[in-house]
Design goal:
Blueprint: H1 2-23, H2 32-54, E1 56-61, E2 72-75, H3 81-89, E3 94-98, H4 107-113, E4 117-119, H5 125-140, E5 145-147, H6 164-173, E6 177-182, E7 198-204, H7 214-233
Parallel strand pairs: 1-7, 2-5, 2-6, 3-4, 3-5
Antiparallel strand pairs: 6-7
Helix pairs in contact: 1-2, 2-3, 5-6
GO biological process, one term: phosphatidic acid biosynthetic process
Pfam families: Acyltransferase (PF01553)
Domain Phospholipid/glycerol acyltransferase: 71-185
């Protein structure tokens, strides 16, 4: 039954996504905030399909740590789910993503038009400098920035080294960093066709204020995210 419900969701999700991309084609000429608003309609529909077909919902912890001013969110990355949910939940956030995603027909074009921050992961110092400049421009627009410190999706209970991008942003931008833990991978795994019913927990942790030295900041960030994510990994399906 779980597999059948996931199959129905996948079919309807693909159909809904294709329809929205076609209908919204003219918006490629529209301002970024209009593209984002259309994206929120697509995401809202996708999350409703996920709840209706699969029985997968969400629980938020620590919403009191969501500041009103633009900040940098450092998010544990386990699934495509958090890219959808946080795009819908936050105020027109700019995700830091690999530039190859912008080459995907239609989807990548909308990402670019919506004002995401694309980076060349082979660019090293020049890429970091551009990323910081782009993030500063996003903050000037009153929008938050989201980065996945590990740089890729990681299975629940696992971790990868935190990349230097988050340290560069923290040091150069002088804004608080809100760590975010979650357990989405228990229900919607990396590249997984099967989605499982239940409740994903996403937890906004206490912000890390600006001004710490690099080593202290990275240790504090990783400790907070990994400790909370490990705790959340014990909730939900294990198979």
């Amino acid at each position: 039954m779980i597999a059948l419900r996931a199959l129905i969701f996948n079919i309807l999700y693909l159909a809904w996504t294709a329809a929205m991309h076609i209908v919204c084609l003219p918006l490629l000429l529209a301002p970024a905030h209009v593209v984002h608003a259309a994206g929120k309609v697509w995401i809202a529909g996708s999350l409703r399909l996920l709840k209706f077909c699969v029985g997968l919902g969400v629980r938020e912890n620590g919403a009191k740590h969501l500041p009103k001013q633009p900040v940098l969110f450092a998010v544990k990355h386990q699934s495509a789910w958090e890219t959808l949910y946080l795009s819908w939940r936050l105020n027109h956030p700019a995700f830091i993503l690999k530039k190859e995603l912008l080459l995907i027909p239609l989807f990548g074009w909308f990402l670019k038009r919506a004002g995401m921050i694309a980076i060349d992961r082979s660019g090293k110092a020049a890429a970091l400098k551009k990323m910081v400049a782009d993030a500063r421009a996003v903050f000037a627009e009153g929008r938050p920035v989201i980065i996945f410190p590990e740089g890729t999706r990681v299975a629940p209970g696992a971790s990868r080294p935190y990349q230097p991008g988050i340290a560069a942003l923290y040091a150069q931008l002088g804004v608080p960093v809100v760590p975010v833990a979650l357990n989405s991978g228990l229900y919607w795994g990396r590249k997984a066709i099967l989605k499982k019913p239940g409740t994903i927990t996403i937890e906004y942790l206490e912000p890390i204020p600006p001004g710490l030295d690099r080593k202290t900041f990275m240790r504090e960030l990783e400790t907070r995210i990994e400790t909370a994510s490990t705790r959340l990994a014990h909730r939900g399906p294990k198979a």
